[in-house]
Prior knowledge:
By secondary structure, the chain is of the alpha+beta class. The protein has helices spanning about 45-60, 90-105, and strands spanning about 1-10, 20, 25-35, 65-75, 80-85, 105-110, 120-125, 135, 140-145, 155-160.
Amino acid sequence: MWKLVMVVFTEEVAEGLVFPRDDWPLHITLLRFDLESPPEAPSDVVHHLAERAAAPVKGALGAELTVGADERFGRQGSIPVSLVEHHPLLQGLHEELFDAVAELGGNVATPHHTLAGYRPHISHHNGRRPHEGDAVLLDRVALVDMAPGGNHTIRRVLKLWRLPSEGRPEEL
Length: 172
């Protein structure tokens, strides 16, 4: 079973990066989900997801997002976040990823926070946070393993799609 998440990183990351579960780079979660993999080819399902995600990701790269108001999520409002204002490319990417995961038989971790219930945001972390009105370029989308090798204390960037400095998506 793969425990995965697709995110838009707002801080610099690299493919293969491993980081502690409690020290994420700032990001916007696109979709959190689980995927079953066949025992004879455990990485095939991740490969198929990356192939299916490539076109929607490429279509969204370069979108200019705007940070909105602060809010508090989680139990008893314990998680400070900055909302991200609605953008059709971000919403469309979220919805296409949801469809891709469904096609592969995946299980979305928080279905009530998807599709019409999707509220993109950036959680504040260790004094790092965006501010209302900040511009965020959608230039880094990643597929992250939430428990590489069964280790739930770390995260690993499995696949990273980037917008090159010239402003055009890299070949995916």
